[in-house]
Amino acid sequence: MTEAASLPSRMRAVVVDSSATGKLALREVAAPQPGPSQALVRVAAISLNRGETRNALSGAADGWRPGWDLAGTVERAAADGTGPRAGAQIVGMLPMGAWAEFAAVPTASLAALPNGVSIAQAATLPVAGLTALHALAKGGSLLGRPVLIGGATGGVGSFALQLARLSGAHVVAAIRDAKDEALVRRLGADAVAIGSDAGAASAQGPFDLILESVGGPSLAAALGMLTSGGTCVLFGASLSGETTFDAGKFYRSGGTRLYGLFLGQEFQNEPASLGLARLARLIADSKLEPAIEVEAPWTEIADVAARLMARRFTGKAVLHL
After folding, report:
1. CB atoms closer than 10 angstroms to residue 274
2. Pairwise CA distance, residues 309 & 252, whole Å
């Protein structure tokens, strides 16, 4: 049997199905046929993010296949010789369709796992970990500088707290509920602000760097808490895409900026593989701990997706195939 003939022709994948309970279901689909610079990955675990889940549940057409984060084993290495070898355990990401038994992943978007990193830990890294990594980089050297992490109990926030602490920053976590204070302090917060939006941290500012993903009044408050030369990194708008803020105060602060972070754009300067390898190494060195709050079989995708959107847990959800 030739190598091409040995590739699977069919597989199971998560698809949008409006007739299914929870709108997400496992269905049989055509298996991917990798291109020259793509590795065929046998997926072992996936992780959910709010963006892809929201898209799947609130507007995607039937048959659409969601999924960004994956971890598993290289079934067949890329034909052009790039990327990890066959049999290597990897973490990778796709723009869609990662929630499946097999995935054809560009080698620029995957990294081999060092010893000591579990498949579940790896699955949490792509979108949340890389967003936190790139967002913090916009602040330059953070040693001794005040940094505000909005949405600190979420997937991005839980990584950002730890990475900011590793960078030597004075880290302030913004959370909604006082019951989560112990969690964010364990993850790296030096101080905690409790309230419905970033404005709750005003007494602890101003800040050299603010990570913000809510939009609306929360973004307006964040822009008003920047130091001269400070940066607010916006990587989402979960509450509102429109914001009214004090433009006069913003420009009079001098050198302040609002940076819109979109991972696809970031990867034009640094491939995802490099960031994934850095994050995985931090886990292997016991310097980074993915905040996994839910682990379940992927047959429970619809239930876990609903719980994620209802904010019934913090941190990350990992589903095993």
Report:
1. 14
2. 38
Cβ(149)–Cβ(173) below 8 Å: yes
What are the b/e assignments for 87-96, b being 16+ CB within 10 Å?
Answer: ebbbbbbbee
CA torsion angle 128 70 304 31 (round to 10): 140
**Domains of the chain, each with CATH number or no CATH:** 3-127+272-320 (3.90.180.10), 139-260 (3.40.50.720)
Per-residue pLDDT reduced to its tens digit, 126-185: 999 999 999 999 999 999 999 999 999 999 999 999 999 999 999 999 998 899 999 999
Locate 205 and state its tokens. Answer: 């500012």
Contacts of 105 (CB under 8 A, 6+ apart): 38, 39, 41, 70, 90, 92, 93, 94
Round to whole Å and give the CA distance between 199 and 194. 9
Please state, in angstroms and rounded to a whole number, the distance separating the CA atoms of residues 45 and 101: 9
- pTM metric for this prediction: 0.94
Percent of residues in the chain assigned helix, strand, coil, to nearest 5: 35, 30, 40
- Contacts (Cβ under 8 Å, ≥6 apart) of 293: 313, 314, 315, 316, 317
